[in-house]
Amino acid sequence: MLASVATVAFEGVDARRVDVQVQHLSSDTPSFTIVGLADKAVAESRERVRGAFAGIGLAMPSRRIIANLAPADLPKEGSHFDLPIALALLGSMGVIPPDALQGWAALGELGLDGRIAAVGGTLPAAVAAASMGLGLICPEANGPEAAWAGDVAILAPRSLIAVVNHFKGTQVLRAPAPGPVTASGKVPDLRDVKGQESAKRALEVAAAGGHNLLFIGPPGSGKSMMAARLPGLLPPLTPQELLETSMVWSVVGLIEKGALTRDRPFRAPHHSASMAALTGGGHRAKPGEASLAHNGVLFLDELPEYSAQALDSLRAPLETGEIIVARANAHVRYPARFQLIAAMNPCRCGLGGGGKGACGKAPRCQRDYQNRISGPMFDRIDLTVETPPVTAADMALPPPGEGTAEASARVAVAAPCRRDVCARRGWIRSMP
Amino acid sequence: MREAGLDPVHALNARASGEALERFATPDEAGRALLMRAGEAGGLTARGWTRTLRLARTIADLEGSTGVLRRHIAEALIYRRTTVGAEASFDRQVSSRGEMAAW
User: Fold this and answer.
1) How far apart are CA B83 and CA A347, in angstroms?
2) Contact between chains at B79 and A205 (C-beta distance less than 8 A)
């Protein structure tokens, strides 16, 4: 008997509908095949489903079983197809009435004991299920995350047996509640930075307008410190931004227990990061650091040390706010609207030809070092600020009078997303 | 709960479109003259022009000013310079040495 269960395949952060169809044919040689451009993790589903069935004491039918993941020309990646395949198989065996499965999409990884393990992407899957008019069956650990999608029925079973019992009516599952929204506790305070008043002013301007900023200065002048204090100046995410950012984080599997955070993302990848790590794509087509920084800040310390390929791949998202990766079968689009903060030394020795211990090769080595950043990259940086060396006298001063609280108040008044300002300017379509 | 109607793409000065800039970030006469001079002196691409206007609009916002004035453009232009440190002072030295030689 043919049974079918809906699930999703992820393209970037979009969840596309996939239908898992299971059919058995009588045969002398029982087998279990999965077709539909399944990658290795999906092909291994066979073994996990077999093991899970054994784990709950069910025998696989000794027939030739075929599981088709339709549409057949869409590449399927990830371990979340285990659960929909198992459910479709249970439907075709009559253990779960097939029409009961019609109103649901499912995703989850199966353990050999029949338990359903957490997977990434539950939030976009729940949103997609809602748009398909279906409910979502997801792992118990992802239940609070899926519940954020709003008006969609969610079942979050712990194991395969729990799903069977739910549809039998012997052990009905309760809908999970959405996870908490956390706000950060302490943020680093601008007050910790001594001196550097003009750099702090530039940081405020960058925060108020979402502009890209580059600090150039000798080692120890506070560049990384000030960059780390930028998130404290930024307003919290709006509900729309929170949803967008959470969808990206969900696909990467970074949402724990359904907890979403209002804090703007702040990503600081090391300069050895590859282009795929920064912009996404590569194996498994996961979003990269630039997408994880969507609606937040991407901090690149030691800017000239990043590979030229990695830096150049950021030029497009700095203009368009998204990253398009061309893969063999399709173009995948990731959101990547971030604010860039970068820091660098003026030259290799770090002192820029001035001050004690200067290496004397300036200005030639300085020009060469700064030329590692391409002209088009500099063109996208709105504020370039020198951070002069911090003297002993500066360090001996008492802490400055103003800190993050005062600066962020100024930013909040001036900054965008203030509905009245934006509405007056006609920059948003104001709706009731 | 989604805040209907809030289009984040346009909600940041850094993302303001050309049309929005035309309406709200057009500088006064003096500001425009300064921007033109900077453009003619070189080093200001078309992208640079738009970005400078956006930056000037933010600086004006921080001051609470409705219009974009010459001093906002001036501050924005300072922030957009890209040569720092010894390179800049070396250039200054070269030009001042040139003046000395002529004299």
Assistant:
1) 12
2) yes
Whether residues B87 and A367 touch (CB distance < 8 A) is answered with yes
pTM over 0.90: no
Instruction: Give A154's contacts (C-beta < 8 A, 6+ positions apart).
Output: A126, A135, A136, A137, A138, A143, A146, A147, A175, A176
CA distance linking residue A240 with residue A263, whole number of Å: 13
A256/B contact by beta carbon, under 8 A: no
Regions of chain A with pLDDT less than 50: 417-420, 422, 426-432
Which residues of A fall within a CB distance of 8 Å from B19? none
Strands A116-117 and A109-110 turn out to be antiparallel
pLDDT tens-digit map of A350-407: 766 555 556 666 667 778 888 888 888 888 898 999 888 888 887 888 888 888 888 8
Separation between Cα atoms, residue A413 and residue B78, nearest integer Å = 24
ipTM comes to 0.76
Cβ partners under 8 Å of residue A131, min gap 6: none
Q: Which residues contact A180 (CB under 8 A, 6 or more apart)?
A: A258, A259, A260
Strand (E) or helix (H) holding B96: helix B86-102
Q: What is the rounded distance in angstroms from the CA atom of residue A312 to the CA atom of residue A293? A: 17
Chain A closest-CA separation from residue B85 CA (Å): 6
- C-alpha span between A12 and A336 (Å, rounded): 11
CB within 8 Å: B86 and A353: yes
For testing the chain B interface, which of A198, A240, A315, A337 should be mutated: the one with the most B CBs within 10 Å? A240
The CA dihedral of A306, A293, A334, A288, to the nearest 10 degrees, is: 40
| Residue-wise pLDDT tens digits, B27-54 | 888 888 888 888 888 777 888 888 888 8
